[in-house]
Amino acid sequence: MAATRGYQMVYLTARGEQYTDATRGWLARKGFPRGPLRLSPSFVTLPGGDTIDYKTETLEAITASGLELAGGVGNRASDIAAYTNAGLAPGRIFIQAAEFASEIDPEVAAGHAVGFQVYAELEAKVANLPQL
Hints:
The chain is built from five helices and five strands. Helix 2 runs parallel beside helix 3. The protein has a single domain (2-127), classed as Rossmann fold (3-Layer(aba) Sandwich). Helix 4 (101-109) links the parallel strand 4 and strand 5. It starts with 10 loop residues before the first strand and ends in a 5-residue tail after the last helix. It is an alpha/beta fold.
């Protein structure tokens, strides 16, 4: 996956900080490598404008620290918006479409992101990307 290509994985979620252990457990169960985890300081950040703002600001802070965004993974339209706001090209935004298909499918059909159904598909999609 991306980590084997030399990329530093950074995980960003609008879940509140109280979900740190649960989020790390979910990432491990899905086979994602360990990496820094950024969670919202708010107890709850609902999908929509607040989530987009939080994720966009956090991605901007990450890039301001000197890291370059190589790609992004998510499962909501707010993820597509935040990654787009941060300057990622649509071909580097990967969206798991199974859970929120009704909001994701139009975005993928419009070419704003690359859709996938299960996380096991993600490795092959990322492997085909040219390195930055």
